[in-house]
UniProtKB/TrEMBL annotation:
Keywords: DNA-binding, Transcription, Transcription regulation. It comes from the Bacteria. InterPro entries: HTH_HxlR, WH-like_DNA-bd_sf, WH_DNA-bd_sf. Transmembrane segments: none annotated. Coiled coil: none annotated. The keyword Isomerase does not apply. The gene is ytcD_2. It comes from Martelella mediterranea DSM 17316. Residues 20-127 form the HTH hxlR-type domain. Pfam families: HxlR. This is Putative HTH-type transcriptional regulator YtcD. Gene3D superfamilies: Winged helix-like DNA-binding domain superfamily/Winged helix DNA-binding domain. GO terms for molecular function: DNA binding.
Length: 127
């Protein structure tokens, strides 16, 4: 490996290695974040809830016509379990349930918008 490419080396010192590869290192934190947003419909849900403060599941189904009710429900439950969205059930008949981003979900959006910008810039750079 070229000596100038030190950024690609894994630290050999145990203390340094833990900073990126340990159980509480950077890799573990980023991996946990990626798991929270992985899934075909999680990003569309997050971006829709970012665009509109509150949405009902019926509106999400209309906005994402290829998603099934089952998959939408699974992804909404996972996002809720991860603390990224809040589900409010009004206990009415017919059922009325609304979804919105939590503070943690709102805090994640600048990261996702930066990832979007990176992807656009990268696509232009490699053309």
């Amino acid at each position: 490996m070229d000596a100038a490419r030190t950024h690609q080396k894994v630290p050999v010192n145990k203390l340094e290695r833990g900073a990126c590869l340990g159980a509480d290192g950077a890799v573990a934190h980023v991996t946990r974040c990626l798991r929270m947003i992985s899934g075909r419909w999680k990003l569309p849900i997050l971006f829709r809830l970012y665009a509109d403060e509150m949405l009902r599941s019926s509106q999400l189904l209309r906005d994402m016509p290829d998603v099934s009710q089952k998959m939408l429900t699974q992804h909404l439950r996972a996002l809720e379990a991860d603390g990224l969205i809040l589900r409010t059930d009004f206990g009415e008949t017919p059922p009325r349930v609304e979804y919105r981003l939590t503070e943690r979900g709102q805090a994640l959006m600048p990261v996702l918008l930066a990832a979007r910008q990176f992807a656009e810039d990268h696509e232009r750079a490699v053309k």
